[in-house]
Amino acid sequence: MLTIKRVPTVLSNYQDDSSEPRGCGRNCLGECCLPVSKLPLYAFKNDASPDVSSGVAELPSDFFLNTLLLGQWEDRMSRGLFRYDVTACETKVIPGKYGFVAQLNEGRHLKKRPTEFRVDRVLQPFDPAKFNFTKVGQEEVLFRFEAGEDHKSLFLEHAVADETKSPSVVAINVSPIEYGHVLLIPRVLDCLPQRIDPDNLLLALHMAAEAGSAYFRLGYNSLGAFATINHLHFQAYVLSTPFPVEKAPTQKIPIENGLSQCRVKFSKLLDYPVRGLVYEGGSTLKELSDIVARSCIWLQENNIPFNVLISDSGRRIFLFPQCYAEKQALGEVSQELLDTQVNPAVWEISGHMVLKRKKDYEDASEDYAWRLLSEVSLSEARFEEVKAYIFEAIGLVESKETAAVEKNEGTPYQSSTTVSAAPHFTEGCLVLH
Amino acid sequence: MLAALTAPAIGRRADSTSLPPLASLTELMDPSLRLPVEQSLAARYSEWVAEALDEIQGCFLITDPGIAGHPIVFASRGFLAMSGYSLEEVLGRNGRIFQGLATDRRSVMEIREAIREERTLQISLLNYRKDGTPHWILFHLFPVFGVEDGRVVHFVAVQVPIRRRSKCLRSSAENRYDGGTGRFLVACRNEFRSDYELGCNPVVELFVDVDNRGLEAEESRQASEQEKEKARDAANSILSTLAHYSKLTGRVISDKRCSEAGISAINSSLVISLGRIKQSFVLSDPQLPQMPIVYASDEFLNLTGYSRHEVLGRECWFLNGPDTDADVLHQIRQSIQAEHSCRVRLLNYRKDRSWFWNLFHISPVRNATGKIAFYVSVQMDENAKSNEHGLSPHMRQLGVVGAVKVAVRSLSICAGPSRR
User: Fold this and answer.
1) What is the interface pTM, i.e. ipTM, of the complex?
2) The domain at B25-164+223-253 falls in which architecture?
3) What is the pTM for the complete model shown?
């Protein structure tokens, strides 16, 4: 049985006590407490809805991000709910072509009792015995974020939770990577495992759109790609500088007429250490979301770990299939890289690295970032193969001209029913942490 | 002088006094912006500049980054003709209204960063006209700096249509049009080439522009040297016009940032970010004795009745007066000493000596080095309307603190060594 040691990030103040069952009366996010709570609710606009509340003034454009999200975050900071003050952590742009961002943060990764967490399966059923977000105290929640029924966005300071629907919440990340680092937890009471589906990805895109700032991104890590908790969640924060991956050149992937209504533009990342797909456009947020979700679903069902970056206010989405954990388990990553203890999840892949040791921070170079991230990427051949399967899963075909360039042993365009991707991990691959 | 600035005086065409029927999404500008937008050019370049700008050939826009939303404050006749919009539909709006589905997002990011870093950029871009048709333009952006304080006062965006060339990038996409029209174009393109170079075959242009999907399929389109030169020439004409007229008001401009007069100890991109926060607050410098104010928002000036130059450099306690509770002041000082945030209610005085109860919140703000760079204090008049949008005043103040912390930290990651 393969094992790797990994030091995880603690996302909630309640995470350390995951093995002890908690009674209620603790004002948690479980069935016992949440339905009667009165968390504030931000109901984002539904363009198709009528103008029900015409008397109410529209919210200012910076309300969601500045006043609500950052303001509430600052409030939790003053209440001492974070493990450390992230603004006291030194951060810099590493000189180089892309400007990777490095942060020296010695407090982020703290000791924890070892628990086992399989990384050989991207899809794993929700386990209520393990830590999950229903055990989080409500003080860590900033507000509920759900679709409204009005054609403008509304904010209600004390909203009674609807008993028929499981609320979606935005909570603080107690080990923040930057000021304002939060978690979006869709339908928290439904205890969904960490897996993408079209509705929940759409919720994340709506959050990006409501924030209205290209510097507010959302990220997703699948199991096996350094998600730490198997309870569906996205992460988000503001960093007012472009991520290296956002600056990387791209090459458009031309599409045959297959889905002629499809307005989504597909591109491949060029000249970047991690190979990835870029999705843009779509006539609606939902169209873009559905295409990306279907891509992720194919990866999930074929056991390929991946990360998703939602940027440009939900208009540009990056998908990175990865293989770092497997390489780590097979001992294929150099010790020097392992010693920096950077787990390449979505933020690291995008170009934001948190370093634990002063020496690593001082020596941080674009070369180091490139070497680390190159280990994460699928090989060119494997990436092309996966890309072809993904297009098939979406019902699209790459234009023949480009396909002609990549002819190899067999054509990758087999019917999907008989072909399955080779198991990505050796069975029984575990991570100890 | 300002009273003379009615619509006709700033170049609006006399024949479009009534609003045209709007077929598409364009709402008119936010009414609260109308006055600042209309005065933006005249205040700096005098009311004569609009006429002079109208005489410059070419398509260009002028925007004002100091107004919320970074709106357009001038559009040339050539631009309006090219885009199909009327002046009313464009004034006060942000330049992103000309972007559309197939506009490359990475190019949009480059423009955003050039604006933030206050530098010149020349880039090909797919824009959309009012009727929804896309067209390629060479987008040439440059900042205009006020000489006195070194701040960016306007951006100018010159736009030169890029004609299709027989050699475009992404030829594989181009060669794969659907439908007869597209193929016809491809086959005959070489024949039309000489007419292209002369740049004057309207029949051909009709063919070129009719196939939107073909245009949208192009990943990018290179401008010719001629087109780039056209952009530069227009830019120079606009700049010299603005420079000339800025002398009339004494608020001289330049295309280069001159060394700053030292009024502001913080850099321009931080000032611009802070300018977007529409509440009363100031930043003070804790490294100097008496913690002088280095930034004050417009709302602070409105609340207290002071002008900006009366406030900058002043010690941050100056709103206090004879009846301000000394114990509360002591509490504030102790929090600053302990590097904590603090929230109090204290009696403060405006310039006219009237007093008000100030809901006051002060907090340390660190920059990318991790050290405290400023203190932000947020003021709120207790009697002012409260519970806006179901938010307590305190919650709104925290929003200011959060936004300031993000701005200071993020912008100092990229700042040069001499900046804070």
Assistant:
1) 0.84
2) 2-Layer Sandwich (3.30)
3) 0.83
